[in-house]
Amino acid sequence: MAKKVLSLSPLPAEIVKLLIQQVPGVPDFEVIPGNEMSAEELKKAFSEADVVLGDYTFQKKITADVIAVTGNLKFIQQPGAGYQHIDVDACTVRGIKLANTGGANAVSVAEHTIAWGLYLLKNMLHAHISTKSGGWEQMRIKPAELKGKVWGIVGFGRIGRAVAERLKAFQLSRILYFDTYRQVMSVEQDLGVEYAEMNTILGQADIISLHAPLTDATSNMINEGSLNSMKQGAYLINVARAELVDEKALAEAIKKGKIAGAGIDVFSEEPVSMNNPLLGVESEKLLLSPHVAGVTDEASMRIINMATANIARVLKGESPESLVN
Fold first, then answer.
1. Which end of the chain has fewer CB atoms surrounding its CB within 10 Å, N or C?
2. Counted domains in the chain
3. Is 270 a catalytic residue?
4. 117 in the same domain as 89
5. What are the C-alpha distances in Å from 281 to residues 18, 63, 145, 288?
6. For residues 101 and 300, is the Cβ–Cβ distance under 8 A?
7. pTM of the model
8. Residue 56 has pLDDT above 90, yes or no
9. Which of 111, 165, 270, 284 is an active site residue?
10. Same domain as 53, residue 188
């Protein structure tokens, strides 16, 4: 009997099947499109599926209730780094392996991060708005150089390391990083980074970029207290998870000038709600984007190719890569 692959992705099932079939030796299988299914339809589909391709928009949640009805399901592939919409513990209890595509969008997110750092330092949004309206504030824009600054990286996984690698060319005075795991000295030397505790980064960095996963330890790690501890005139960039930052406290910190500004790509409610406190901040040094740091065309192709190749491995009876449980 052909294996069943339940796809929660918005991609057409025909495309998903073609991508999986690119791998030689994949046995017969069918792809069940589940993105438009109701909650009850999804439960039935989960009970019959052998493999699940997750939803990269995070709208289709895989909860303990859904996992409880599974029968033959042995593997869930999330097309992306984040899997906060999936109950990992419930998967583990049921013996269901979960994998992501960590690293597939590292280049895209790292480039977005550094672009925002430069954009904020150079005061580019104000320069654009002023000049387009007929102004000529050549001596009032006051752009700054990245050279000689201190950059703090919070979370030193694939994306954090990709940021550090690209920052080397800018000749910063220091690149600090904080993570639960400290790199070996050879890696630190190669990337030109120094390990530092979080309070040191808060007090010394001119720019802090967040690349940490959402855990109990990282939830709300940037709050009123940590914002007050940041260096005067510093910038915050969040391209990781919205829940790492207290959005209300950040909005107030920018309004009151406690920090110079921020670049935010992720929000506590997506699509972003008009009630979000950040939308009420009138500042040309608050940059917002709709969770696009990692969704370049190039990254999207890497993500879906990695995900479907991993599904092909499982269908062939091989071990999947990038497991998270």
1. N
2. 2
3. yes
4. no
5. 46, 35, 25, 11
6. no
7. 0.88
8. no
9. 270
10. no
